[in-house]
Here is the input.
Amino acid sequence: MITVIGSINMDIVVETNVFPKQGETVFGQAFHTVPGGKGANQAVAVARLGGDVHMVGALGRDAFGKELRTILTQENINDDLVADVDTATGIASITLFDEDNRIIVVPGANYDVTNASIDAARDLIAQSDLVVMQLEIPQATVAYALDVCQELGTKVLLNPAPAENFKAEWMDRVAYFTPNETECADIFGVDVEAALEKYPNQLIVTLGGDGARYFDGERHVFVKGFKTQPVDTTGAGDTFNGAFAYAVTNGQTITEAVAFANIAASLSVEQFGAQGGMPSHEAVIERLGGVQ
Ligand code: RIB
Here is the structure.
C-alpha cells in the first residue's frame, strides 16, 4: 500500500499561441479546468496502475473541493484522510505555450495539511510500504512527516517540487529522491555526476523525454525514455513518480522501476491535462514490451 501526502489542486489551464509581454493582452486558444496538484496526480498515477493508494491532504468547502473529492473517489483513491477545511481549494494557473507549460500554484487548503494531519495518519503510515511526498504542502509538515516515517520505519519517496522548499538535512530520511536536472542543480549546487555519486541508489534524476539516471555505487546508469510526440507535458513528472513508487513496491529493481516509470510518463504526455493521459498497467506493459 502507498500513502501520498500532498497537494490537491484544480488546474486552470489556458492554451495560447502567443505569450504576452509585460502589460500586453493577447487572445488565447482554449481554457480548461482539470484536476491536478502534484500529490493528487501522483496518487492517480499509482491508482490507474492498479495500486492500493491512500491520500492525506486538504480541500476547501467549495465547488472545486467537491469536484476534486469526487474525482479522487472515482479514481479509487482512499480519501478518508483528505480533510475539508475553510480555506479555498488549491489552484494552479497553467499556461500552455510552445509545447511546454508555465505554472503558478496558489496552495490555499494545501497549506492546511499540518502536523495534526500527519498524526491522524500514523496508523496508515505504519502500514504503508512507501510514503510519497512532494513540496506543495508546508515545509514544516514535510519535515514532521519525515520524522514520523523514520520513527515508524516506513520508506519515503520525496519528489522535491517546487525545489525551493527542500531542506538538505532531509536526505538521510529519504529512500528515493527524484528531482529533475534543474531541481538537482538548485538543490545540490554541484554537477549532476557529483550529486549522483554522493547518493547511490537514492538519487534518481529525471531527464524529461530522455529518461532518467542514477548511480548504483559502481557505475552511472542511464535508463532511456520513450520518444513520443507530446500533447501536454503537465504531470509527466508526477506520472513518473507514481509509476516508480508502484513498481518499486511491487518488487522491481531500481532500473526496472525507472524503465516502467519512463514508459508511463511517455504515455501520460500524449493526452491533455496532468491526469488525462495517466496510463493503466496494461498500457505500460504493452509499450514496455515493444521496447525491450
Ligand atoms: O506537476 C504538475 C502539477 O503541478 C499540476 O497539476 C499543478 O496543479 C501543479 O501542482
